[in-house]
Every structure is written in C-alpha cells, then in structure tokens.
Design brief:
This is Nitrogen regulatory protein P-II. It comes from Desulfofundulus kuznetsovii (strain DSM 6115 / VKM B-1805 / 17) (Desulfotomaculum kuznetsovii). GO terms for molecular function: enzyme regulator activity. This protein has 96 residues and is of the alpha+beta class. The protein has a single domain, classed as Alpha-Beta Plaits, CATH 3.30.70.120. The chain is built from two helices and four strands. The longest helix has 17 residues. The radius of gyration is 14 Å and the shape is globular. It starts with a strand and ends in a 5-residue tail after the last strand. The mean pLDDT is 95.
C-alpha cells in the first residue's frame, strides 16, 4: 500500500476530486485551506502579501491500483507543467 499526499492550488479542487472519484479512490482525508511554500513556488499564505491557498488530500491506495492512479495524476501534473500540483508517495507500513 502507498499513501498519496496530494497538494494543489484551490483552483484545481473540482478537477482533483473528480479525478480521484473517477479513479475509484473512495477513502481519503482532505484539508480545504492549506498554507505554505514549496521549494520552487511563491508562498500561499492567504493574506494580502501572499494571497491564495492550497488544498491537500491524503489517500491510501493498494499496490494493484497505485500505478494506474499515479499515471493519471502524472498526466494531470504534465498538463499544468507541474505548477500548483504535487503528489508525494509514501509507503504504508501499518494501518491500525
């Protein structure tokens, strides 16, 4: 199993959630207002100096589904030239 931690510009929320739904990702945790700064991005602090914010989704996917789901997420990222959308893949060792 893998944990997909996806962060993205709030403008892509409908696209990302629709994509996850169409890919059969039924279990997830979502954060609606995520603030921060990436290595190659401007801060998104939802204030007058650094407006805007992101969303984040964490979903655990099985080994059988992971490549199919990651392929679609990579296609989406490519369409955006990698801007405003990141996916981090982490191993899931134990679920309690």
């Amino acid at each position: 199993m893998k944990l997909l931690f996806i962060t993205y510009d709030v403008d892509f929320d409908e696209d990302v959630m629709g994509m996850l739904n169409s890919l059969g990702v039924t279990g997830f945790t979502k954060w609606d207002r995520v603030l921060g700064k990436g290595k190659n991005s401007e801060p998104r602090l939802d204030d007058p100096v650094w407006p805007g914010f992101n969303c984040a989704v964490a979903a655990v996917v099985g080994d059988d589904d992971q490549e199919r789901i990651l392929a679609e997420l990579k296609k989406f990222s490519s369409r955006l030239d990698g801007k405003g959308f990141k996916v981090f893949v982490l191993p899931v060792l134990t679920v309690i």
